[in-house]
Write a structure and sequence with these properties.
The protein is built from 3 helices and no strands. It has 97 residues and is an all-alpha fold. The protein has one domain. Helix 1 runs antiparallel to helix 2. The protein is flat.
């Protein structure tokens, strides 16, 4: 196997989705020269994908994978909450200035 390509695994998939979520949050990545502006909707999508992964792999993960996935989800959810636009806040309604 090519040393530059990691082995396909649940951990690799978790890290791939995490990287995409962080890029969507505007967090720079060492391999990407220009990071687009934060996009909370896309970031939330990747966090939701990780949640689906957690749900669908319940009972099939090792303890280490479970702990890692729980920590990833916690950290990403904390970051994505900071990105939510004001219109998503409770009490805000569309069409009001």
């Amino acid at each position: 196997m090519n040393p530059a390509v990691p082995e396909a695994s649940l951990t690799a998939l978790m890290h791939l989705l995490t990287e995409q979520a962080l890029l969507s949050m505007g967090v720079p990545h060492p391999m990407v020269k220009e990071v687009p502006p934060a996009n909370p909707v896309v970031a939330r999508f990747y966090v939701d994908l990780l949640s689906v992964l957690k749900e669908k792999t319940e009972g099939s993960r090792t303890e280490a994978e479970t702990a890692q996935l729980d920590e990833i989800l916690y950290q990403l959810r904390m970051r994505v909450m900071d990105l939510q636009p004001a219109v998503d806040s409770p009490g805000a309604s569309k069409g009001q200035a």
